[in-house]
Amino acid sequence: MAIFDVSGYKKYCELREQILPAGLTHLVDRTNHYNFGTKTQEFAVPPGVDPSGFLKSCNHDGGVCIEMNHGTTTLAFKFKHGVIVAVDSRASAGNYLASKDANKVIEINSYLLGTMSGSAADCQHWERLLAKECRLYRLRNNHRISVAAASKLLSNMMLGYRGMGLSMGSMICGWDKQGPGLYYVDDNGTRLSGRMFSTGCGNSYAYGVVDSGYREDMTVEEAYELGRRGIAHATHRDAYSGGVVNMYHMQEDGWIKVCKEDVSELIHRYRKGMF
Amino acid sequence: MALQDICNFQSVFEDRLTTEYPAVPHGKKIPSNYVSGLPFSNNKSLFHFYIPVAEYLDESPIQFGQISTVQNCSAVSSEDPFLTSSSLPTCLPFASSQSVPLPFPMAHGTTTLAFMFQGGVMAAADTRSSCSGLVACPASQKILPIHSHLVGLTSGTSADCALWKRILARELRLYQLRHGRRLSTSGAAKLLSHMLHPFKGTELCVAATLCGWDGGEQKNFVDSTNAKVSLAKDERFSFSQQCSIRKKMNLSGPRLFYVCSDGTRLRGMLFSVGSGSPYAYSILDQGVHWGLTVDEAKSIAREAVYRATYRDAYSGNCVDMYHITSKGWTRRNREDLKEEYYREKERRKHEKTERRDVAFSD
């Protein structure tokens, strides 16, 4: 039927064809996430390729070690008036700064945000795929997807490729019927719900600041200031974070972009006594 | 001996025989080697025990922990019970990229910090000694006084740090007796750095922060301290002005040096070392500036160590604080951070119930 074609719905027999070695004409690059691998194995890896074996052979002693570092700082915390999301904007490729103005927050829809840390390519691809799935969910079911379900979708995508060298540390933030939601999703398939997370190699610096200044009953301005400080101090000490602080505030009726401030100016303001 | 045959003991002196016999693969028993290789042959008295000498003790300490040369490799078999400890899996996080045989698992988990301000130097550290997941001692002392005006914070291997601190203390005392004045902190740092240099490249791991107050026997010392106190009472000076003022009284004042066994020697205003240091750095960056009062400095140092112990698994238990002034160091009572953790938990619970009450009343 035409509706099946439009929405990409695949019958079971079609799926099987794609996985069997004979069905080489239909190499999958879009897995159907609603079966969650219950009927057939749905990993979109061409037959004969073994990424996890390749990685294992690389990472043994004496081999070339592929270091998966998440070079960034992102943080998000829940408080009385919603969720604050703050990220830096430096994209590094080894020692080279590829960009000082990268966008590390993906606006999935008007009430869902995803942050990115780790491999930029992986993050962008999988979170855009998540955005597509969220939109399809909305169209099929006539109500918005919950934050828990969206993070679960992403987590299952990561689990499908576990051990194959993905590198992604993301926080899915949103506001749904249960209120403000914050989930941390990892390339290992970790999915944690919590009040406060920080990812990336600058996360420890951000944790110190936000742990110290966090209060449940902060005002909105205090929360903005805390988010800014967390990122600013992390960029001050961590070599792989820098650029500007992009801050979003997730409220009941959607997110707003709060500010985009240069970290060097922020540091000058905060450490006036030391300069 | 039959026992040696059963437990596959291979003589440590086998390397002397490699010229005669070809290198043997593991597990293959060659009785002839035993008979002629043993320093005490079987027909000697039964009471003559073979006391094994671990091969690595014959080498110079500089070689300890280094990659063995090819000849020694063939002699050391993994079945040798006396050297099994050196063939630990190299997946330990602290093994270098080449397979250096580590004698024991090492772990460097700690949080120590020190910063300079107008009232001297404030040093703080946690008290947890960990050994790869085991808390070996929840009440260790990481801040070791070296002499009345110098205190050292230790990070790295506790044994190495304790030993080198004592050696440094001895050398400084000798210097004081010979020259009639205390060695400056800068000199002490240089001395420690040069003493550690021969061990560069070995598994020695010492990361020490020396905090001290220089000056004291000079005549102008009293004037300089008075001038410093009056400065603090004024409005906060900009850093460059303070630099030039301090240059005038260059000889005395607070000093902070970081010395590491890989040769680093840095002078600075603020240092934090250890696995918990990133968490502490951000707190310190927020609050530390020259014009702090002593109480403010104490509370910032305490907060920084507390936050580090909150997030880092290898730091914890209590916090020690030392304050170094012109009169010497003073020690604050050791404070258990567990109390602080429970107080904070109460505070958060209180905030939450407050918020819920407010929400209900709306």
TrEMBL record, chain A:
Active site feature: 72 (nucleophile)
Alphabetical list of InterPro entries matching this protein: Ntn_hydrolases_N, Pept_T1A_subB, Proteasome_bsu_CS, Proteasome_sua/b, Proteasome_suB-type
UniProt KW Hydrolase keyword: yes
Subcellular location: Cytoplasm; Nucleus
Any Pfam family: Proteasome
Catalytic activity: Cleavage of peptide bonds with very broad specificity
GO (cellular component) term, any one: cytoplasm
GO biological process: fat cell differentiation; immune system process; proteolysis involved in protein catabolic process
GO molecular function annotations of the record: threonine-type endopeptidase activity
UniProt superkingdom: Eukaryota
Keywords: Cytoplasm, Differentiation, Hydrolase, Immunity, Nucleus, Protease, Proteasome, Threonine protease, Zymogen
Gene3D superfamilies linked to this entry: Glutamine Phosphoribosylpyrophosphate, subunit 1, domain 1
Similarity annotation: Belongs to the peptidase T1B family.
Function: The proteasome is a multicatalytic proteinase complex which is characterized by its ability to cleave peptides with Arg, Phe, Tyr, Leu, and Glu adjacent to the leaving group at neutral or slightly basic pH. The proteasome has an ATP-dependent proteolytic activity. This subunit is involved in antigen processing to generate class I binding peptides. Component of the proteasome, a multicatalytic proteinase complex which is characterized by its ability to cleave peptides with Arg, Phe, Tyr, Leu, and Glu adjacent to the leaving group at neutral or slightly basic pH. The proteasome has an ATP-dependent proteolytic activity.
Assembly: Component of the proteasome complex.
The protein's name in its UniProt record: Proteasome subunit beta
Automatic annotation (TrEMBL), chain B:
InterPro entries documented for this protein: Ntn_hydrolases_N, Proteasome_bsu_CS, Proteasome_sua/b, Proteasome_suB-type
GO cellular component: cytoplasm; nucleus; proteasome core complex
Subcellular location: Nucleus
Gene3D superfamilies: Glutamine Phosphoribosylpyrophosphate, subunit 1, domain 1
Main location: nucleus
Any single Pfam family the record assigns to this protein: Proteasome
Keywords: Cytoplasm, Proteasome
Keyword Cytoplasm: yes
Flavoprotein listed as a keyword: no
GO BP term, pick one: proteolysis involved in protein catabolic process
PANTHER family linked to this entry: METALLOPROTEASE TLDD (PTHR32194), PROTEASOME SUBUNIT BETA (PTHR32194:SF15)
Protein name, as recorded: Proteasome 20S subunit beta 11b
Species assigned in the record: Haplochromis burtoni (Burton's mouthbrooder)
